[in-house]
Description:
mainly alpha
Amino acid sequence: MILMHKLPAALYHVLLTLWVGGLWTIGYLVAPVLFASLDDRQLAGGVAGKLFALIGWVGLGCAAYLLAFLVWRWRRAVWRQAGWWLALAMAVLTVVSLFGIQPWMAQLKIEALPQDVMASALRDRFVFWHGVSSVLYLAQSLLGLWLVVGDQMSGIRHQ
């Protein structure tokens, strides 16, 4: 019975770890290694883009549970919890990236065909949106770090 009582909090921590760990792993380890290891930058970018989309979908699933859990845990007081706002901000950034910026960048790549977008007249637009995407990803990564560290420091053990 005790285990069942602690299961929702344990799942919260597992999903938080999955989401934030995935962001950091893909963005700051895997993607740079792809570009450093593959001679074909177009292939590296394609694989990295698929990984960023994947962690976006993982993030949406994790965010849904995290936000629901925090509402269940804190009820009306959820609005006063930093963790709620951090998770919500991360979710919003995920939605903007996944449904706004990533499709726009993919469209620019398609419009540039048969050329690589970086060798086309669309290069400047692609570089701009890639920069916006990178800044949002960094913000999401830092919010995730803040959420993990804040979670541990506040003692949110979720009895």
